[in-house]
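Dig into my protein:

:::
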Amino acid sequence: MDRTAKADLVSTLNGVFNQSAVVVVAHYKGLTVADMQKLRSQMKQAGATVKVAKNSLAGIALDGTDVASIKPLLKGPTLLAYSGDPVAAAKVAVDFAKTNDKLVILGGAMGKTTLSPDGVKALASLPSLDELRAKIVGLVQAPATKIAQVVNAPAAKLARVFGAYATKDEAA
């Protein structure tokens, strides 16, 4: 890789680190190409990305970013998983690590907060942004549905009473 390609990679990574809500660092030693492709596709489906970069270049790109606290984790064969959603990258990485013991989560960062491996696992257990939005919409809609049921209930009761009187008159 020549000097200009390295400079481009560093600037690209710097932009990624500035825009990502969460960055997870993991060792991938022993993962097969098929496993890496599977991990990349799972990350892509969740709206996250996996990047393998030379540790020294990633360390340079980390300078001046909020997630610079992960720099000491960049030792050995590391991969970086990142996403704009604070939960997506962590969730996919933790789920993949459960089924494949060769992916070892070292830690990560969410903004200026440094995450230990347990912190990444705790973050992965949280609901995603889309799930939280769905819950909020459900909570907002629930009172409106209940109000509509209460408003319609007296009319339904009146209709049943009139129907009962009608069938009573027909029977007599």
